[in-house]
Amino acid sequence: MASQDIAESGRESPGVSFLYDPKIRGIFYQAVVFIAIITLIYWIVGNTVANLQRSNIASGFGFLKGRAGFDVSQSLVQYTSDSTYGRALYVGFLNTLYVAIIGIVTASILGFLIGIGRLSQNWLIRKICLVYVEVFRNIPPLLVIFFWYFGVLSVLPQARESLSLPFSSYLNNRGFSFPAPVWGHNAGLIGIALIVGLVLSFLVARWARKRQMATGQIFPVYRTAAALILGLPLLAFVVTGFPLSFDLPKLGTFNLSGGAQVKPEFLALYLALSFYTAAFIAETVRAGILGVNKGQTEASYALGLRPGQATRLVVIPQALRIIIPPLSSQYLNLTKNSSLAIAIGYPDLVAVGGTILNQTGQSIEVVGIWMVVYLGISLITSGLMNWFNAKMALVER
Amino acid sequence: MYKTVLQGVLGVAALAVTATAASAGTLDDVKAKGFLQCGVNTGLPGFASPDDKGDWSGFDVDYCRAVAAAIFGDPTKVKFTPLTAKERFTALQSGEVDVLIRNTTWTISRDTSLGLDFAGVNYYDGQGFMINAKKLSGINSALQLSGASVCVQAGTTTELNLADYFSANKMEYNPVVFEKIEEVNAAYDAGRCDAYTTDQSGLYAIRLGLANPDDHVVLPEIISKEPLGPAIRQGDSQWADVIRWTHFALLNAEEAGITQANVEEMKNSDNPDIKRMLGSEADTKIGTDLGLSNDWVVNVIKGVGNYGEIFERNIGTASPLKIARGINALWTKGGLQYGMPIR
């Protein structure tokens, strides 16, 4: 097709050399740029390999199978100093995901509350939310992390003088200790009951929606779902004979032992990331709600909807269309900011990778892994948010 | 074959590759640059720390100055790059520093897979533990530390020894790991951990900077061998020779009684060993064969003194650290420091 065009254009202007043909020129310049980029890549790779060989630095990913030899303070999976470097990186990766996911959930809840609070009719609530947003939005995230770590958590009392909180939990400068649940016989039934409750609620909601579409009758879906999701596991709990005991934290020689513990490094990072990102989410939410024309609310009132229904059924679905795209960026920011963990010693991917880099000297490989992992997490997050956005977008007929 | 063809096609690029691969030795680079770039600790009193005017002092810092004096005859022709434990090897590998004198332990994996060479051991150390004796009275051995939270710097041999020691003794512990030594110090001082572990010399140095130094004690156990020494990039034997023989010259000067004060008059000594070392022997080629001037040892000693003087001034009895020579005494006094003969 292209060659035919070129031939034709050549025929149409017989006096002009093919050198002046815009199509040939286009192809030529593209070829030049292509060759230049390939040359550059070849040169960079060749140069790197030559320099690595010249400095006698081992390369390749074989080091991942070596014994790590160091311990990690927080691990979601089984890990000891005898595990491999690959396992250590995996532990760091899970720690990054852990703080990012919990942070995103908390930041979203907090952000929505504060964003709505900024539009409250109550003067005090409105101003408190305004101050919150302006304070956290205008401080660098690293300082927010330091504030929580050095300003709040490290001034808590020592382990021996822990603050006693209700339910045998304790707060000290080593973290927050609380009773760990120990499930007994047949405890699996409770989980099954929970799943059954969830599935039933989903089915009830679908049926209620269909019936409302057909007959206009409203069914109390939320109350039924709450009863199913809470009631069924509770019933199972009673039937199986209360198979739950608690492992209480006790004071050992140095620390509280037993129970479950949340380390101050994690707490500081989690709180800082949540509070910092919540300020941005609050502004996004406020903008989204204000972006819905006031006429929409008035129209829904005119149709006889109650204020709660008007917000839920008319305003929020439209506001979400404005909120979701910038919200994705905030989620990505939160995930990437989690690498600031290194400043307070939370063992995330960057901190663990840095130790490995230092021990094996394989900086290029480790930095490559970092980049691929963060890119992967970000792309997956964007993908999910785009899917959600498409689902929420205005369906035009 | 494939590579040859490609190199022919991409002539310019290939030239650039080969040009980078064939660079001059570090000694020539340093001479051309006019100063030595030395990688040191970010702040370990006694070994390397800046004062309030930004002037560096310490045992490792004086070693950097000794090398500068050997090359340029001037101990001030040196610039310091403060490096964390994690940054140090990358900085050396990438050529950001010419030599790394930063209480770095000589181990086989660092010597081989990291692409480094060690030029000697300027301080024989071992890893220990420090605790707050006021808060933890009754603890007088590292073997009682089961269940403790232990502060440690990331990316050190210390971190690895700690894991090995606790697992070998079937004890539990919580590692509290920071990247910068200042962060570890602050966390320990704030009571985030029960014990602090690093090289014993480091513990004595760090203790001085704590809020109440007298509350803290260093436990008696030494759990590892930590031979600390200057590191350089592998495969540059001329540069290795300069660093290695500067170290031996400092030791031999102490052995021969040559000090900063008497080095000028020692040049006229009748002792052939001293004459040879100080380059006052007729037609000597020792210095020039090394790529330096023949009076390089004179310059070193005039600049910083001998090994014993450097030790006493920075970490020995004349300093706040008050570390005894111990195994770092000369071999003639029952220690391990042994300078190879300069002849």
Which features would summarize this protein structure in a list?
heterodimer, A: 397 residues, alpha+beta, MetI-like fold, 4-stranded antiparallel β-sheet, two-stranded antiparallel sheet, 12 helices, 66% helix, 7% strand, B: 343 residues, alpha/beta, D-Maltodextrin-Binding Protein, domain 2, 2 domains, 5-stranded mixed β-sheet, 3-stranded parallel β-sheet, 39% helix, globular, signal (chain B), Amino acid ABC transporter substrate-bindnig protein (chain B), Bact_solute-bind_prot3 (chain B), transport (chain B)
Question: What does this entry look like structurally?
Answer:
Chain B: InterPro entries: Bact_solute-bind_prot3, Solute-binding_3/MltF_N. Chain B: Belongs to the bacterial solute-binding protein 3 family. Chain B: This is Amino acid ABC transporter substrate-bindnig protein. The complex is a heterodimer of chains A (397) and B (343). Chain A has 12 helices and 8 strands. Chain A is of the alpha+beta class and 397 residues long. Among the domains of chain A are: 16-54; 85-139 and 273-392, Orthogonal Bundle (MetI-like fold). A 4-stranded antiparallel beta sheet of chain A has the order 1-2-3-8. Chain A has a two-stranded antiparallel ribbon with strand order 4-5. The model of chain A has no long low-confidence stretch (mean pLDDT 85). Chain B is an alpha/beta fold. Chain B has 2 domains: 2-124 and 228-333, Periplasmic binding protein-like II (D-Maltodextrin-Binding Protein, domain 2), CATH 3.40.190; 127-224, Periplasmic binding protein-like II (D-Maltodextrin-Binding Protein, domain 2, 3-Layer(aba) Sandwich). Chain B has 15 helices and 14 strands. In chain B, strands 10-9-11-8-12 form a 5-stranded mixed beta sheet, with helices on both faces. Chain B has a 3-stranded parallel beta sheet with strand order 4-1-5. In chain B, strands 2-3 form a two-stranded antiparallel ribbon. The longest helix of chain B has 20 residues, at 237-256. Chain B is globular, with a radius of gyration of 22 Å. The N and C termini of chain B lie far apart (50 Å). At the A-B interface, α2 and α11 of A face α2, α5, α7, β10 and α8 of B.
